[in-house]
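Chapter summary example.
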Amino acid sequence: MARPPKARLPLKLAALELFVEQGVHATGIRDIAKHAGCSEAALYRHWKNKEALVASLFAEHLGEVRAILEDAIVGATTLEAKLLAASTACYRLYDEEPLVFRFVLLVQHELSRTLNSAVRMPQDVVTDLAREAIKKGEVKGDPALMAAVIIGIFLETAVFVLYGRLPGPLSRYAQPVATMALRVLSR
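The structure predicted for these 187 residues follows.
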């Protein structure tokens, strides 16, 4: 029987932390291995190169963020309730797993362009939310533009907390962010 890949999890955690704190381009294989307490060869046993590790981490955590959004809004019936549920769930993720939130939504979002167009993104969930609100007559406008506005309000609040312009935890802003997003969309 094959040995379990003991180094895989420490390498993933080390890479995630370094990618968020230093940036992907400034982080080398040697840095990741050292931070994980593993050899460089251990990393290469699991991923072809650093780019494959980045893509693997992004795909894994992208699915996690998307599922958190989808699960949060599934029971909500109004746009206001959906906005609050989505911001509450994702802001809780930021408070509990800031590296995942930051990696997917703030650091590596440009990887979205490299994914197959069939892969559902968190942005798709928000666009669908806007499209449904338009169908129900709750708001008027272009669903993609509305999603961009919602995401902008949502992420910029996270950036303000990250850089100390607003005190944390981020989850304390779920209600005000949902209210502001609704106000903007309703105009």
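To summarize the output: The mean pLDDT is 92.
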